[in-house]
Amino acid sequence: MTTLKIDDKINEIIERFLAELLLKDGVKIDKKTLVEKAILWTIKNADFIEKELLNEKIEIEKDPAWILLEKPMSWGIKDASIKIDEFLYGG
Asked: Can you say how many angstroms the Cα of residue 11 is from the centroid of all Cα atoms in its chain?
């Protein structure tokens, strides 16, 4: 058996969900079973997860710093590596 540490906020959400299942539907399952089923569902529905992760990537790509990394501005210097080496290591 492997121990899995879960963030306290996520653990609270799981506990609340399990309590709602019990109160609303009369279904009582333990946390381990819920997590195992959620992991299996995730693996079976990998396309859904990939879309979720892709949405996060799209948000990152809207970040101005990311945009500058993808399309750097020209400073009129063809290659500054020699200057960088001189600055870092002395020249």
From this structure: 18
Cα–Cα distance for residue pair 18/31, rounded to 1 Å: 8
CA angle 61, 62, 67 (to 5 degrees): 70
* Predicted confidence band of residue 8 (pLDDT cuts 50, 70, 90): very high
**Contact at 8 Å (CB) between 32 and 1?**
no
Contact 14, 6 (CB under 8 A): yes
What is the rounded distance in angstroms from the CA atom of residue 72 to the CA atom of residue 66? Answer: 10
**5 vs 3: CA distance, rounded Å:** 7
- Closest C-alpha among 52, 17, 56 to residue 37: 17
Model confidence, pTM = 0.50
DSSP state of 45: T
Which region, left, alpha or beta, applies to residue 26 given φ > 0 means left and ψ of -120 to 50 means alpha?
A: left
